[in-house]
């Protein structure tokens, strides 16, 4: 009898736990993320969800924490790293993060499916996606891809490539499309003739590899790069996304958004002016990338941001329109497009970034970096 | 002793086959039509075994955490093993509880068993982010849910299955004559459970526990990758793989770590088997 009571208690406890779990999960956005609880003088807790592990792609945010820029604005920022199966926008709409970093085309699809999120600052003005090949393949423009084996990661990374081919009159039937792993072995072993590569990551991986023919590292002279910015099919990438409903209803959150953008841009300005220090900050935050690779990434990401046409974070209407247009008109191998109709007006706004930029300019922060000059980074074998 | 020698011989054989194929096999791999059936033998695809081992003794890590790679891998392996152990314990407890419930109530068996089987058809990558999100919303006083707990929960999700199935069979395994003897003496259900059914279930339970241990380790590594938990082998595999093209031999270091975790887990179950030796009558050696 005693035993059975224990059993019943156990089952009861399980049931209660399950109920509590269910209750919490349906509780939605309010509870863990309320910003109104903080009194003046206390820091407002803010959570930022990244798309991937700590790396220099997010140097500005790590630098803003390290340099106390967020604290100056009264924010206590926690950065959540991304991972293979974590979709930043889902974390944002689920209420587990206050802001999220994500590529615009990836989010457009979520918005069409009902996610209420807003691009409040377009940090990267240029696209870092390229198609890389060895010189002897003679692939210098999208038109040259015809008849070649072309690698793509898929999962929303393929649209600029497809749009570029579309524009050049190359159809998907003209190429043999290969699913590419997130490293460059496909290109190096010759399985892929033109491989997808981010300027700040995979491209560097090739340059960190010893060419068996020469016994030295591959050089940029041995590679051709198709840059989608030049081909005119670039899409907007890393942007800061906020919860649209909270922006509309919660004045404190809207205020926090301005402060968050402001301090983040300061962080990016710091990374522009101090790339070595910014790379070290990211490494100290736990990134496992090698030293020269990290610095390369910092430098290349700087190139995607600086110089900024209208002030960092501003969403330029023409670039937004181009991104939306490609997302609507470019079919993938199954005939699907990212979105089928124009996104709602709430998909982006310059309201908050303009406030942040005005404050920054008042403080004398250079938000355009007109005279930005990238540094030269020497990559070492394996990126160490 | 003989077993140890045979085990070591197996490893040596593997190394020899690897290196022989690398030395003699065609650089482009063996193809049937367009299908590669045996891998390329280039250093990129198949690094030398000694290169892989040598990498373990090189410096790795970045910034403040520079250390020999074997140490980094060892630390990650211990971390993963710890999380897997928590997942295994939770999985075994839940699995046993379900088995007892199903043994006691025939209706429970009909009601629960299909769900248990169905639960294993849900892909891990679908539940991992969900578990993390639910977990992050749990706050009970000073207790806050941490990401490693989500990984342990996912590990237990894989581990409980073989235990519940194996234990159910084991609990039902005593001969009718024994059960009837207990009944004729008026022994209660709980006492029958502890003195008859549990001892009788050991031969069924041990292989189930072994499977559970393997599942817990795999579940932990996959969940680490899935939700990006820092500190374990899973994330290390991804981090090293990102540099695969530059240094292919290095990517094997965390894989060795994963193997070590699996071996330790298997060794622990073997030890458990020794402790439960006197209940292992009639067990077919597995």
UniProtKB/TrEMBL annotation, chain A:
Responsible for the formation of the pyrimidine heterocycle in the thiamine biosynthesis pathway. Catalyzes the formation of hydroxymethylpyrimidine phosphate (HMP-P) from histidine and pyridoxal phosphate (PLP). The protein uses PLP and the active site histidine to form HMP-P, generating an inactive enzyme. The enzyme can only undergo a single turnover, which suggests it is a suicide enzyme. Residues 56-278 form the SsuA/THI5-like domain. This is Thiamine pyrimidine synthase. Residues 1-22 form the signal peptide. It comes from Herbiconiux moechotypicola. Belongs to the NMT1/THI5 family. The lineage of its organism: Bacteria, Bacillati, Actinomycetota, Actinomycetes, Micrococcales. Homodimer. Pathway: Cofactor biosynthesis; thiamine diphosphate biosynthesis. It catalyses: N(6)-(pyridoxal phosphate)-L-lysyl-[4-amino-5-hydroxymethyl-2-methylpyrimidine phosphate synthase] + L-histidyl-[4-amino-5-hydroxymethyl-2-methylpyrimidine phosphate synthase] + 2 Fe(3+) + 4 H2O = L-lysyl-[4-amino-5-hydroxymethyl-2-methylpyrimidine phosphate synthase] + (2S)-2-amino-5-hydroxy-4-oxopentanoyl-[4-amino-5-hydroxymethyl-2-methylpyrimidine phosphate synthase] + 4-amino-2-methyl-5-(phosphooxymethyl)pyrimidine + 3-oxopropanoate + 2 Fe(2+) + 2 H(+). Keywords: Iron, Metal-binding, Pyridoxal phosphate, Signal, Thiamine biosynthesis, Transferase.
Automatic annotation (TrEMBL), chain B:
Pfam families: BPD_transp_1. Gene3D superfamilies: MetI-like. It is found in: Cell membrane. The keyword Transmembrane helix applies. Residues 77-276 form the ABC transmembrane type-1 domain. Keywords: Cell membrane, Membrane, Transmembrane, Transmembrane helix, Transport. It is a multi-pass membrane protein. Its main location: membrane. The chain crosses the membrane at residues 69-100, 112-131, 151-168, 255-276. Belongs to the binding-protein-dependent transport system permease family. This is ABC transmembrane type-1 domain-containing protein.
């Amino acid at each position: 009898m005693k035993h059975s009571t224990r059993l019943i208690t156990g089952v009861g406890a399980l049931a209660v736990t399950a109920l509590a779990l269910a209750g919490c999960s349906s509780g939605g956005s309010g509870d863990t993320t309320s910003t109104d609880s903080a009194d003046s003088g206390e820091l407002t807790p803010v959570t930022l969800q990244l798309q991937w592990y700590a790396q220099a792609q997010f140097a500005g945010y790590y630098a803003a924490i390290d340099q106390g820029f967020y604290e100056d604005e009264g924010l206590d920022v926690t950065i959540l790293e991304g991972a293979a199966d974590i979709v930043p926008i889902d974390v944002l709409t689920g209420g587990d993060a206050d802001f999220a970093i994500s590529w615009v085309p990836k989010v457009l699809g979520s918005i069409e499916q009902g996610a209420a999120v807003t691009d409040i600052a377009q940090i990267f003005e240029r696209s870092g996606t390229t198609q890389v090949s060895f010189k002897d393949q003679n692939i210098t423009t999208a038109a040259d891809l015809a008849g070649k084996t072309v690698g793509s990661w898929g999962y929303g990374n393929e649209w600029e490539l497809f749009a570029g081919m579309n524009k050049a009159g190359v159809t998907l039937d003209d190429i043999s499309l290969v699913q590419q792993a997130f490293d460059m072995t496909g290109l190096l072993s010759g399985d892929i003739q033109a491989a997808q590569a981010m300027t700040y990551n995979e491209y560097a991986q090739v340059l960190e590899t010893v060419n068996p023919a020469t016994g030295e590292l591959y050089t940029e002279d041995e590679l051709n790069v198709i840059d989608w910015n030049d081909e005119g099919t670039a899409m907007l990438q890393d942007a800061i996304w906020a919860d649209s409903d909270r922006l509309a209803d919660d004045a404190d959150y809207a205020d926090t958004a301005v402060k968050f953008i402001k301090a983040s841009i300061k962080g990016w300005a710091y990374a522009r002016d101090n790339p070595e220090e910014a790379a070290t900050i990211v490494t100290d935050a736990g990134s496992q990338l090698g030293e020269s690779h990290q610095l390369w990434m910092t430098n290349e990401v700087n190139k995607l941001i600086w110089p900024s046409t209208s002030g960092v974070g501003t969403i330029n209407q023409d670039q937004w329109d181009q991104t939306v247009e490609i997302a609507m008109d470019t079919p993938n191998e199954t005939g699907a497009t990212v979105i089928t109709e124009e996104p709602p007006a709430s998909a982006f706004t310059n309201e908050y970034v303009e406030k942040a930029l005005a404050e920054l300019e008042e403080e004398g922060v250079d938000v355009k970096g007109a005279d930005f000059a990238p540094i030269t980074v020497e990559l070492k074998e394996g990126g160490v | 002793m003989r077993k140890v020698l045979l085990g070591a011989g197996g490893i040596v054989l593997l190394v020899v086959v690897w290196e022989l194929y690398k030395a003699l096999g065609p650089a482009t791999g063996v193809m049937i039509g367009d299908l590669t059936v045996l891998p390329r033998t280039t250093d990129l695809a198949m690094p030398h075994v000694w290169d892989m081992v040598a990498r373990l003794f090189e410096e790795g890590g970045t910034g403040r955490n520079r250390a020999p790679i074997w140490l980094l891998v060892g630390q990650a392996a211990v971390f993963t093993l710890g999380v897997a152990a928590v997942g295994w314990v939770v999985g075994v407890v839940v699995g046993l509880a379900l088995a007892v419930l199903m043994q006691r109530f025939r209706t429970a068996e009909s009601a629960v068993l299909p769900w248990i089987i169905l639960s294993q058809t849900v892909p891990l990558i679908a539940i991992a982010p969900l578990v993390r999100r639910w977990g992050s919303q749990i706050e009970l006083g000073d207790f806050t849910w941490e990401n490693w707990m989500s990984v342990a929960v996912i590990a237990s999700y894989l581990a409980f299955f073989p235990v519940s199935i194996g234990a159910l069979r084991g609990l039902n395994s005593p001969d009718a004559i024994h059960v009837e003897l207990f009944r004729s003496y008026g022994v209660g259900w709980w006492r029958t459970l502890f003195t008859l059914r549990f001892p009788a279930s050991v031969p069924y339970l041990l292989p189930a526990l072994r499977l559970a241990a393997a599942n817990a380790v795999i579940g932990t590594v996959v969940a680490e990758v899935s939700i990006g938990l820092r500190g374990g082998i899973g994330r290390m595999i991804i981090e090293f793989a990102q540099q695969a093209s530059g240094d292919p031999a290095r990517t094997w270091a965390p894989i060795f770590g994963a193997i070590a975790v699996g071996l330790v887990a298997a060794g622990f179950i073997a030890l458990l088997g020794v402790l439960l030796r006197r209940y292992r009558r009639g067990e077919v050696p597995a």
